[in-house]
UniProtKB/TrEMBL annotation:
This is Putative G-protein coupled receptor 21. The lineage of its organism: Eukaryota, Metazoa, Ecdysozoa, Arthropoda, Crustacea. Residues 15-268 form the G-protein coupled receptors family 1 profile domain. It comes from Amphibalanus amphitrite (Striped barnacle). It comes from the Eukaryota. It is found in: Membrane.
Length: 270
């Protein structure tokens, strides 16, 4: 089963590469704020997939890694994973402005504020790397021979708690925003259909409140991302509350989280 990480990592990278190419080669898409932010999300998926594939390849070849190199690889995977969630949060903010304040969209979503949303993604990654740099995990004291680079062996409980807090905060923020956006979007959709006899407005501005196809795409991404992370959050919380290791359950929850990146890329490609 050592090949699983390699195969899954390559699938994640390839599935996320499709939207990167689609957005990167389309001038009209590159001009739209939502797709600019989605490019962050897709790029994070590609990088996360490549790092996962690299880790799987090292396991497949039974290549022993020095502990510092292993910790660096794990820190990179974690930072990119959090960047992906931060990008989804940024997309959710943009969609909230589009739906809740459609008539003032371009007044509120100024270039400076859009740059802040873009900058938030690498900022979250940098903060994650900083936290990793200050961690003193039990695995750091182990000899380098036969290191398999699994995060549960190289994260201290304190580091895991910090990342759990990061994850829960981002997911809660994304969930609240998308609940508001979803409710308002459905209400506006029904109102438009009634006023136009079941026909949507023919001409809409990019990023306008009527852009419901993009809205529902982001909602689907958010729902699946949150659902696939919930087992990790619940099991990690039980681990800290009860003090039990629960290694098998925690590893299973970690594997389910990988499906999030694979599914995100597939939804992008679709």
């Amino acid at each position: 089963m050592n090949y699983v990480g390699l195969v899954v990592g390559l699938l994640i990278a390839l599935s996320s590469l499709l939207p990167c190419l689609a957005i990167g080669t389309s001038r009209s898409l590159r001009r739209r704020p939502m797709f600019q932010l989605l490019l962050h999300l897709a790029s994070s998926g590609v990088l996360f997939g490549l790092l996962t594939a690299l880790s799987g390849l090292l396991r497949l070849l039974h290549v022993p890694l020095p502990v510092p190199l292993c910790q660096t690889l794990l820190a990179g995977q974690t930072a990119v994973g959090l960047a992906s969630m931060a990008a989804l949060a940024a997309v959710s903010v943009e969609r909230y402005v589009a739906v809740e304040h459609g008539l003032r969209y371009f007044e509120l979503m100024t270039p400076a504020r859009l740059r802040l949303l873009h900058g938030a993604v690498p900022a979250v990654s940098a903060l994650s790397l900083l936290v990793h740099a200050t961690d003193r995990a039990p695995g750091a004291l182990r000899p380098p021979d036969g290191v398999q680079c699994y995060y549960l062996d190289f994260w201290s409980d304190q580091l895991e708690q910090i990342h759990l807090g990061f994850g829960v905060t981002l997911v809660t923020f994304i969930m609240v925003l998308n609940l508001l956006v979803g409710a308002r979007g459905i209400e506006q959709d029904r109102r438009i259909r009634r006023q136009r006899g079941g026909m949507l407005v023919a001409h809409q501005r990019p990023g306008s409140a009527g852009d419901h196809k993009a809205l529902y795409a982001v909602l689907r991404l958010s729902v699946f991302s949150i659902a696939l992370q919930m087992p990790h959050f619940c099991i990690s919380t039980l681990h800290f509350v009860t003090g039990k290791e629960m290694l098998a359950a925690r590893r299973l929850a970690g594997a389910i989280r990988l499906l999030m990146f694979l599914l995100n890329g597939s939804l992008f490609g679709y």
